[in-house]
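LAB NOTEBOOK - FOLDING QUEUE
OPERATOR: T.R.
BATCH SIZE: 2
PURPOSE: Compare the predicted C-alpha cell outputs for two unrelated chains run back to back under identical settings.
PRIORITY: normal
REVIEWER: second-year student, initials M.K.

ITEM 1
FIELD SEQUENCE / FIELD STRUCTURE:
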Amino acid sequence: MFATYLIGLREGLEATLVVSILVAFLVKSQRRDRLPQVWAGVGAAVALSVVFGSLIQYTSTSLLRTSESRELFEAITSVAAVVFVTWMIFWMRRAARSIAGELRGKLTEALAVGSLAVAGMAFLAVVREGLETALIFYAAAESVAGGTGAGSLLALIGGIVTAVVIGFGLYRSALKINLSRFFTWTGALLILVAAGILKYGVHDFQEAGVLPGLTNQAFDISATLDPNAWYGALLAGMFNITAAPTVLELIAWVAYAVPVLALFLRKPSAGPAKPSAGPNAPAATSTEPAATRAEPATPPVEPATTRAEPAAPAESTAPAARPQPAAVAPSPRA
C-alpha cells in the first residue's frame, strides 16, 4: 500500500507543481482568461491517464487468456515501469532548477498562438506524469499480494490527494517545504520500489518460461523474516523483499538498487560548470587589457610636441622624437 501511495504522492506532486507554475504565470501576467484552457488541458491529460490505466488492466485480465501470456505481459510492464521510474527520477533532479523557466517560455509561445495551444501545452505538461503514474501503479500494485485492488487504488488516490494539498499550500505560500530534499528522499525510496518491481518482473519472466531458475532459490529466511508478520508484509509491500527469492531475482534487485541508488545520492559535480565559466572570464579580461594597451598608443604623440619629457618616449616614441628636433633646428638659424 505504501508503495502505491508513494507513487501517487511523487507523481502527483510533480504534476501539481507544473500546473501551479502555469496558473501562477497566467495570474501574474493578467491573463486569467486563459485559465479555463489550462484546466481543460489538465482534465484531458487526467482522463487519458485513467483510460490508459484501465486499458492496461483490461489487457491483463480480459484479453490475455493463458497464464503464461499474462505473466509475460506483467513482466514487460514491470520492466517498462522501472525504465520510466529511473528516467523520471534523474530527469527531475537535472531539470528541477530550469523547469519553471521552460514552462513559462512555452506558455508565452502558446499564448501568442491561441487558446487551443494553451490547452495543448497544459495537456502535454501533465499527460506525461499521468501516463507514468498509470504504468508504474499497475506494475507496483501487481508486485504485491493485493494486486490492483481497491486498497492499492485508494492508496494511489490518497497519495495524489496529498500531493494536490501540498501543491496548493505551496502555491498559496502556506507551506514551506524543501522540495530538493523532498524529491531526494522520495526518489531514493522510489528507486527501492523500482528494484522490487524489477525483481517481480524477473519472477514473471521465470514463470512465463522466458528465464530459467524458478526453483533455484538464493536463500530461505522464512524463519527470520516471517511473511505473515507486519514487518515482513511491510518489506514485501514496499520493496518486494521476500524471504525466499530466486537467484536471478536477487541478482536483479541488487544489480539495479545498488548502482542506481549510489548514482542518485551522489551530489552532482559542480566542476564542469566552473571551468566553462572560467575560460570565459579570462577571455573577457584578456580583451580588456588589449583595449587598454591600444589606448596608450596615442598619448606618446603629445609628449613628442613637448620637449620637457624626452625620457618617456625612449621606449616606443624615440623614432618620433628624432624627426622633431630636425624640423625645429632651422628656426634659430633664421
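ITEM 2
FIELD SEQUENCE / FIELD STRUCTURE:
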Amino acid sequence: MSEPVSDRQQLTLFDQRPFFERALVHGVRSGVIDRHRLASIVSDGAKGLVQIADFFGTSYLRPNIEEARTRIVNLVSLFLEENSGGDLDLAARSLRDNSFLSHSRGGSDMLKKLWAMPEDSSYGILVKQPQKEFIAEWSLRSLPDYRQALAKRQGHQLSITVALWLAERLGVAAADLSTVAAESVVRSAVLVHLSGRGPLAIPTASSLLQMLEAFRKQGLSGKGRRLLASLLQELPESYLPVVQHELQRIESEDLPRIADHSRPLAQLLQELEPLYHLRDFGPEDAGLFEAAACADWQRITAGKTDDSSLLTVFVCIATDMPAQTVLSKTTARALIRKARRDGFKRLPVLGLIRALAPYAMQDDLETLWKDFFPEAQTALLDAADTTLADALDFLRENCNLA
C-alpha cells in the first residue's frame, strides 16, 4: 500500500538531513542513480572536500576536513534545492546528469552573486566584506538564510536602480551619488514633482525651504499632482513599489508636519533635511541651516550666554521639562522630583548643543555640560535629601532661581 501524500509531507517536514543527502538516497532507492554513478559522486566528493579544506584552511588537519565536509554538502544542497524547487525527483536526476563538483561550484557561484549584491541601499558603498570571508561564513548557512538575504539584497538593488533612474531624469550623474542613501534620492524626486515647481531637479537646501513654504501656503497644487502622475506612468512597472513607498511616507509623515503651522519652518527644515538628498550644498546653504539653528538656539536660551542661564536651560532639557533660563522655587522642586522619578539624562543636552548651538560655541558648551553633569546628578538624585534642601542649594549656586 502506497504511503499517503500527507504522511510523506510530514516525513519531509521533519527530515533534518541535508537536501543533497535526501536527494541522493531518493535517487538510489528509485533507481535514478545507479551504483556506477554513486561511485562517481563519492569520488568527486572526496576530491572536492580536500580542495575546500585546502582553500579555507589546510587539508591535513582533521577539524578542517570535517568542516569542509559540511561546507561542500551545504553548497551542493543549496544549489540542488534552489534549482529543483525542493523536488527530490528533479534533484536526483540532476545528480545523475551532472557532476558532483559542478553542483558544488553552482552553490559557490550563488554565494558569489549574493556577495556582489548591495548590503544596504547606499549607492557606492566603499567597505565590503572580503569575498573569501563571506563564502566561508555563508557556506555553513542554511537555504532559508540564503533566501532571506537574497530577498533583502534584491530589494536594496532595486532601490538603488530606481534612485539612479530618477537621478538621471533630474540631471544628477551617478558619480555624484556615491554613498548616498537611495531612499533619500527617491524621496527628493517625489517631493520635487509633488511641489509643481520648476525646473525638475534635485533640490538645494534653499530650494527645499522654498518648497516647504509653498506647501504650507498653498498645499498640493494641481500641477504637482499632474507631474507626479506623469512620473508614475513613465516609471518601469518594477520600479513602482519603491516610488510608491516613499510617496506614502511623504503623504503620511512629512506633509502633515509641513502643514502644522505650530512648527517653525527653520525647525521643520532641520527635521526633514536628513530624509532628502540635496545637491550643491555650498556656503549659502550652510548659512541657511546655521541661521535656522541659531534662531532656535536664541529662542530656547532667550539670548542668554552666561553659564548660570545656560545650565538652567540644560537641567530642564535633561529632565525633559520646558527650557527656562530662570526657575521658580516651585518649578525647581518639580524638576528635582521629576529627575528622581524619570532620570537625569546627559545625552539630550549634548544633542541640543550639536543640533542648535552656534558652531563656534559648541565645544565650550559641551565642556561646560560634561563638567557640570556628574556633580548635578549626585546632588539632584540624592535620596537621602528627603526635604530637597541640598538639591535646591545646588541649583541656587549653579543655576538661576527666582
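REVIEWER COMMENT (ITEM 2): Residues 1-14 have pLDDT under 50 and may be disordered.
FOLLOW-UP: none requested
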